[in-house]
Amino acid sequence: MSEVHAIDETAGPAPSVSRSVAVATDILQALLLICVVGWVIDLPRRLFGLSFYTEQLLAVCLGLALALSFINARYQRPVIGWIGAALALIICGYIAYRYEDLTLSIAMLPTEGVIGSAIIVLLVLEATRRSAGGVLVAIILVISAYVFIGPHMPGDFATRTVSPERLLVYYGLDTNAIIGSILSVAVLIVVPFTLMGQVLGRTGGAAYFADLAMSGMGSFRGGAAKIAVVGSGLFGLISGAAVSNVMAVGIVTIPLMARSGFTRTRAAAIEAVGSTGGQLMPPVMGAAAFIMAEFLQVSYGAVCIAAAIPALLYYAALFFHVDLEAAKHKIGAAQVEDMPRFSEVVKSGWHFPIPLIFLIATLAWPEVFQIPIERAAVYATAIMIVLCLVFGYRGKRVTPREMLRAILDTGKAALDIILIGAAAGMVVGALNISGISFGLTLQLISLAGENLFVLLLLTAIISIILGMGMPTVSVYVLTASLLAPSIIKLGVSPMAAHMFVMYFGMLSMITPPVAIAAYAAANIARVPGWNAGWTAVVVGWSTFFIPFLFVTEPSMLMNDTWPAIIWNLARNLLGIFIGTAGIVGFAVAPLSTPLRLGFVAAAVAILIPPHVFAGAQWLDWAGLTGAVALLAFNWMQSRAQKQTAPQVAAP
């Protein structure tokens, strides 16, 4: 589902779809899945002894995705849509058929290559505008224009000279542009994982995770909000899309939080922050994580391992906030009738974790299983289909017809990421052919005065600005190409630099003025999106600090000894708890203004990495000592209040 259009789709019923469009859509989706799954499990070679270039498959899949986009019922010009779909299929099919000959003559700029590439570029731009909005398209056009302006710029801003024909052919046929690595990740990796998420969600998996969260957290104080936090995190295991997470989980948790005593604005903010964090949750993170593995040339398992502690810190921070907020306002258990028992939920849905366990095992021990990640996702989906058809969930089995519908709808669910992958390839292509990124790296370092903290702060701001109105994967490709190299240049590890820009690109989902996840949650809560967005920033305050931690502390990305990892994790968890208490105004008991300031100061001292500057280690110990003292003092205040309360109430 598109992160942009998902908000609009909640406002009213979907437009009616003609029979011809419905049939064409199903055929295109089926062909797309057959191509992807067949390639992933190597059917052409195994059954027919055939082999193709990966780029030929990508061209076919791009044509199918473009055709799906143009016949989409959201746009009420069917004739233009059918023409665009036919043109996409013909051009992409021709490129796939003639790919070897075209690439061999690419340096000669053949006329058919120039014209075909020009058509592909126009189709991709229009389909991307429909899918992800005009922001990404505008950025692509600006970067493309700079390719021709750059050669006339002075100093480090100067770029190589590129002719319009050369740029078009590079966009359309080169493996570093549209039909390149980013589209390959979107088609060959993201589509299989989207298929797994679709099947799991449509066969009771989403309800299973929601019931787990409800039965496990509903009876505690602030239970409704804790259901939202845990439910969003669990749903994030299978879906890395923030808005989809809001729509699946928030439709239940936001009204539940409002009934329990949270304001509607805060309920929307809590759900938005919780759903946004799903993009960090292994094993199925957001699509940006798969592309990160491709950029860094590491396994996806390595990215999952690096993301584990940041994800833990993210959700721990949110959990601390809702718990302390509930304690401050005396909000009790969730107001749920017939709350399911945890044992009953586990007994009824015992089979749902099995495919996920299989997937995690293939990621954790690749040398044992020797199964590519995309093939593991297909196998996990097959296991899930069999188990769900046999066992169902809570007395209900999915029918084969419903299962087929879930499988087919994967095409529409993965459509946006395929189109964004093609468009992002144009960004990478423009940077590669012109050399823009090299000059920009030097300029950013110069602007920051070669100061890492200033550069990180500048990068964070730019990432959030670029993320306004765009899906995280688009933001990540831009920031990874334009900003991450400058951070690496100052000595930061590539994994930390890329995780940093992805994290802040993700946070644009809850940062006004265009906070897509917050606006989606606000739409459910029926409150102004602007208010929900700023409340989400307050609720998720610590998430804006976490990226700075793992840039300067390798242990936060699991790149250190176990004692160092455990110590720094515990220290940062304490710092986040102390800071959250100061923000909320409650720890063990309500905090006065001076105490709140003391808690915040102690948290800052703890969260500053101990090796970031001379004397930082002593500041760290001072913060830890102060935190313990403040907690002890607040605990004594709480005991004193409990002892005096009966005397005050006595007649």
Automatic annotation (TrEMBL):
<keyword id="KW-0812">Transmembrane</keyword>
<feature type="transmembrane region" description="Helical">
    <location>
        <begin position="298"/>
        <end position="320"/>
    </location>
</feature>
<dbReference type="InterPro" id="IPR010656">
    <property type="entry name" value="DctM"/>
</dbReference>
<feature type="transmembrane region" description="Helical">
    <location>
        <begin position="21"/>
        <end position="41"/>
    </location>
</feature>
<keyword id="KW-1003">Cell membrane</keyword>
<feature type="transmembrane region" description="Helical">
    <location>
        <begin position="564"/>
        <end position="588"/>
    </location>
</feature>
<feature type="transmembrane region" description="Helical">
    <location>
        <begin position="47"/>
        <end position="67"/>
    </location>
</feature>
<feature type="transmembrane region" description="Helical">
    <location>
        <begin position="377"/>
        <end position="393"/>
    </location>
</feature>
<protein>
    <submittedName>
        <fullName>C4-dicarboxylate ABC transporter permease</fullName>
    </submittedName>
</protein>
<keyword id="KW-0997">Cell inner membrane</keyword>
<dbReference type="Pfam" id="PF06808">
    <property type="entry name" value="DctM"/>
</dbReference>
<feature type="transmembrane region" description="Helical">
    <location>
        <begin position="79"/>
        <end position="97"/>
    </location>
</feature>
<feature type="transmembrane region" description="Helical">
    <location>
        <begin position="618"/>
        <end position="636"/>
    </location>
</feature>
<feature type="transmembrane region" description="Helical">
    <location>
        <begin position="349"/>
        <end position="365"/>
    </location>
</feature>
<feature type="domain" description="TRAP C4-dicarboxylate transport system permease DctM subunit">
    <location>
        <begin position="119"/>
        <end position="563"/>
    </location>
</feature>
<keyword id="KW-0472">Membrane</keyword>
<dbReference type="GO" id="GO:0005886">
    <property type="term" value="C:plasma membrane"/>
</dbReference>
<feature type="transmembrane region" description="Helical">
    <location>
        <begin position="132"/>
        <end position="149"/>
    </location>
</feature>
<keyword id="KW-1133">Transmembrane helix</keyword>
<dbReference type="InterPro" id="IPR011853">
    <property type="entry name" value="TRAP_DctM-Dct_fused"/>
</dbReference>
<feature type="transmembrane region" description="Helical">
    <location>
        <begin position="169"/>
        <end position="195"/>
    </location>
</feature>
<feature type="transmembrane region" description="Helical">
    <location>
        <begin position="103"/>
        <end position="125"/>
    </location>
</feature>
<feature type="transmembrane region" description="Helical">
    <location>
        <begin position="444"/>
        <end position="466"/>
    </location>
</feature>
<feature type="transmembrane region" description="Helical">
    <location>
        <begin position="532"/>
        <end position="552"/>
    </location>
</feature>
<dbReference type="GO" id="GO:0022857">
    <property type="term" value="F:transmembrane transporter activity"/>
</dbReference>
<keyword id="KW-0813">Transport</keyword>
<feature type="transmembrane region" description="Helical">
    <location>
        <begin position="234"/>
        <end position="256"/>
    </location>
</feature>
<feature type="transmembrane region" description="Helical">
    <location>
        <begin position="498"/>
        <end position="520"/>
    </location>
</feature>
<feature type="transmembrane region" description="Helical">
    <location>
        <begin position="595"/>
        <end position="612"/>
    </location>
</feature>
<feature type="transmembrane region" description="Helical">
    <location>
        <begin position="268"/>
        <end position="292"/>
    </location>
</feature>
<comment type="function">
    <text>Part of the tripartite ATP-independent periplasmic (TRAP) transport system.</text>
</comment>
<feature type="transmembrane region" description="Helical">
    <location>
        <begin position="414"/>
        <end position="438"/>
    </location>
</feature>
